[in-house]
């Protein structure tokens, strides 16, 4: 067992209990239609942290998307889109950040992740328009007027898929965080390419080990304690079909979409990212010289988690720029 995996598994003795609780999570699209309705008291979704409003909406293909919103509906809006094998809980530090308290913040579990529906069809994940429709469904159900899209890792692809299908007229700006904007082996690390195979392995032992290793690779400053336990559970909840379907997508280059987007772009990237090379963000910067590239010297793939105070301040400043006029 390598050092990173050992570090991630230390203290995880209570993981079984956490996993059992997670196993009661929302099962998927077969549940009742509850578009934007408040869940029943006592349900998993109703147990959102204080101040957050849980919601569930249907996407265009019937997939149910679970999420949470916080803040004044009249305030400038941020729509957070998480990365592969993660969830809306990835943004907990942002939802608790005083620097962001004056904004309406919305996060949701991508299809195949967390409490959202998990279609079995690989087409549900290979078709970029499905991801785009998910963003549109959340925006419509929550009556978001003109949010800033924050796309982390896979979330950057999802944000680009939305812009590709729906255009940018309803988007105030885009923050790409260690984002995947072009599926190219020279822009992703060899480690990332390996995880494409190992995290979808039919061998349960290999897949389990790879899940822990993938999570470790997301950080330069790794999480510990309950944060680690929760992240491991959430990674394990992700449908195998997500990876298997996504790698089959024919939409491999979203750089032209971001070049054509008329709004402002903030590029956030961790210096020690083990999955997405800095060159990915640098290419967007070259295409959009008016964008800002902010490199986090003490972060890996997750700068918003590893250096949250700086990230919150920079996102708040970007919100001011994006919402001018």
How do the helices and strands line up, and which of them pair or pack?
Elements (H helix, E strand, L loop, with lengths): L2 H7 L5 H8 L30 E6 L5 E7 L6 E5 L10 H4 L8 E5 L14 H4 L1 H14 L6 E5 L1 H13 L6 E5 L12 H9 L5 H14 L7 H13 L2 H7 L8 H6 L4 E6 L7 H10 L4 E5 L6 H4 L1 H15 L3
Helix pairs in contact: 1-8, 2-9, 5-6, 7-8, 8-9
Written account of the structure:
It is a single chain. By secondary structure, the chain is an alpha/beta fold. It has one domain: Rossmann fold. 39% of the residues lie in helices and 14% in strands. It contains 14 helices and eight strands. Helix 1 (3-9) packs across helix 8 (204-217) and helix 5 (128-141) packs across helix 6 (154-166). The radius of gyration is 18 Å and the shape is globular. The relative contact order is 0.15. Residues 1-46 have low confidence and may be disordered.
Brief descriptors of the model:
disordered N terminus, Rossmann fold, hydrolase activity, 8-stranded mixed β-sheet, 39% helix, globular, 325 residues, Alpha/beta fold hydrolase, 14% strand, alpha/beta, AB_hydrolase_fold, AB_hydrolase_1, 8 strands
Q: What class, by secondary structure content?
A: alpha/beta
CATH superfamily: Alpha/Beta hydrolase fold, catalytic domain
Q: What's the order of the H and E elements?
A: HHEEEHEHHEHEHHHHHEHEHH
Helix count, DSSP H or I runs of 4 or more residues: 14
Percent in strands: 5-15%
- What is the alpha-carbon Rg in Å? 18 Å
Largest sheet, described in full? 8 strands, mixed
Q: Distance between the terminal alpha carbons, to the nearest Å?
A: 55 Å
Oligomer: single chain
Q: What is the overall silhouette?
A: globular
Number of strands: 8
Pfam family, one: Abhydrolase_1
GO cellular component, one term: membrane
InterPro entries: AB_hydrolase_1 (IPR000073), AB_hydrolase_fold (IPR029058), AB_hydrolase_sf (IPR050266), TAT_signal (IPR006311)
Domain AB hydrolase-1: 78-308
